[in-house]
Amino acid sequence: MAEAVFVVSAVIILAGAIGVVASRNPVHAALFLVQTLVGVAVLFVLNDAHFLAAVQVVVYAGAIVILFLFVIMLLGVDKAEELRIEPIFGQRPLAAVVGAALAAVLGAVVITGADVLTGLRRAGGERSLDGDATDIERMGRVLFGEFAFAVEITAALLTVAVVGAVVLTRRASRSDASETAGAAP
Amino acid sequence: MSGILVLAADPMLAGDIGLVEVVLTLAKAVVAFGFLLVAVMLMIWFERKLLGGMHQRFGPTIAGPFGILQTLADGTKLFFKEDLVPDRSDRFVFKLAPYLSLIPAFLAFAIVPLGGDFNNGGQVEWWGRTTYLQVADPPIGILLFLAMSSVAVYGVMLAGWSSGSKYPLLGSVRASAQMVSYEAALGLAVASIVLVTGGLSTHDMVVAQAAEGYFGIVPRWNVIVTGLVPFIVFMIAGTAELNRPPFDLVEAEQELVGGFHTEYSSIRFALFFLAEFMNTITMSAIIVTLFFGGPAGPVLVSEVGGVGIAWAWGVVWFFLKLFVLLFCFVWMRATLPRFRYDQLMDLGWKALIPVALGWFLFLTALEVGRERGWNEAAVTVVSLLVFAGAALLLVRAVRSGRRARDREAARADEPSDPVEERA
């Protein structure tokens, strides 16, 4: 049963991933991305990580890809892209090299199947938490106990990013700029 | 191996899965789906009739007694109309979008407990199997509802985009911005409920609310336990999430012709219409579950002719509560004028989200205080002071932002002054 679910969702995920890269229309690419994300959510459920699955759908499929689509629609780039022109020189050969390197690393991990890179077989490694706790409790304990500082720092970073984005979009007009320049000591 | 089987916490599915379990689960799904379809039919009639009454006119009267078959007649008409697909549309996405609206509306309904005697844990025994009267009780519980409401955005968004026409696109861009921003407030209101329940399962939520109330008569419903604020936030955000009036900017007729579904006709339009009303019923059912104790209520007659019917009282209470909420939704529609777009965004981001977040933190402080044995009055006073201080800061920030915008606008209106330019 578990194997069947894995195979079906793996096919869905891979088909979606290929679709993201291969489709010429950005909106279709975004929809394929949703397919991949939902497939990964099914894999999370398969591994008893129910909360992660829900978050995967709510945050990634429900918010992030929606924002992608929003930008695509607002910018009006929802037509097939001209692919013959290379926007940045040397980008494509470089992409091929990096892609090959990534494939090699992933291949090595799959073939050796164990602690080649991190020394850990699974995320979390030897650290076992209370057996009865649900995955939400475990994640909460880890995130707000052991990694509380990292969580706080990430929150601060995101806040800084939002404030920065607002400041950049509300660029002062010329008279405004002279006013602030005059006001500053 | 156990992954799939743990998906539902229903006691029936804990052991071996045989034919009876499969048939029971399928039957529950079919009954719930059939109920939703019939409920949509009656709801459309009810809404039109009630709106008619509030407008001092009759509403539907011709088809059937009191016009109750009006929806059936409309549906039949829609079935036989020509199905148009615009020339400039993205054909596959255009055909996909109505289903993306409809399916989440039904899936979210699966987690609503529909009946059962919650004075005794809410289980029923059928054919020797103990089970819940709800289609599924997944471990993520109420998060499934949030996930489905975020998937439903795709239906609206893609419908507008794939039509290949300007007004639907504008409607769908508005809709997605509105739904995504109000989802945050919705989630924060749900978080308060999860906090007082101590779990995500909708069944556990109803069990917790069925417990002994206050002074013997006031029920222990979450609307009281969480102090009314999350309920108000959820009600407003829920209405916005449904794109119902007064938040129906998505299809504002005067501005956008018909909004995201302008280009849809025939059965595809009917699917959108169905999804809209299904969503209304699902949202009301979720509100009943979260805030009003779902099917929990007293059992007046527990047996008729030796057959236990205690579970049926749960169904009765559930439907009564659902009916009252649906009435409120129609009432709001008839009473309140439509919001302007900037008012909508202001309400969502500057009022609902901060209030929901602040109230959630307040409830958390109370909970922590109770656990640590702090003085409850002191915790309340300090939290409320912090709450008030933060609210003051927020109001000041919003006001200074508005002043700066007004100044900028005033400057843009003035003809440019050469003296100032040189300086």
Key features of this structure:
heterodimer; A: 185 residues; 7 helices; disordered C terminus; B: 423 residues; mainly alpha; two-stranded antiparallel sheet; two-stranded antiparallel ribbon; 14 helices; disordered N terminus
Describe it.
The complex is a heterodimer of chains A (185) and B (423). Chain A is mainly alpha-helical and 185 residues long. Chain A has helices at residues 2-22, 26-46, 50-75, 91-112, 135-146, 148-169, 174-183. Chain A contains 7 helices and no strands. Mean pLDDT of chain A is 79; it is low at 177-185. Chain B has 14 helices and 4 strands. Chain B has helices at 19-54, 70-80, 91-109, 142-162, 166-197, 202-209, 222-225, 229-242, 253-256, 266-291, 310-335, 341-372, 376-413, 418-422; strands spanning 123-126, 129-132, 303-304, 307-308. In chain B, the strands form 2 sheets. Chain B has a two-stranded antiparallel sheet. Chain B has a two-stranded antiparallel ribbon with strand order 3-4. In chain B, a hairpin with a 2-residue loop joins β3 (303-304) and β4 (307-308). In chain B, α4 runs antiparallel to α5, α5 runs antiparallel to α8 (229-242) and α12 (341-372) runs antiparallel to α13. Chain B is globular and about 80 Å long. The N and C termini of chain B lie far apart (75 Å). Classes of the chains: A mainly alpha (185), B mainly alpha (423). Chain A binds chain B through residues 1-2, 5, 25, 27-28, 31, 34, 45-48, 50-51, 53-55, 57-58, 61-63, 66-67, 69-70, 73-74, 78, 134, 136, 173-176, 178, 182, and chain B through 1-4, 6-7, 90, 93, 138-140, 143-144, 146-147, 150-151, 153-154, 157-158, 161, 169, 172-173, 176-177, 180, 183, 187, 200, 408, 411-412, 416, 420-421, 423.
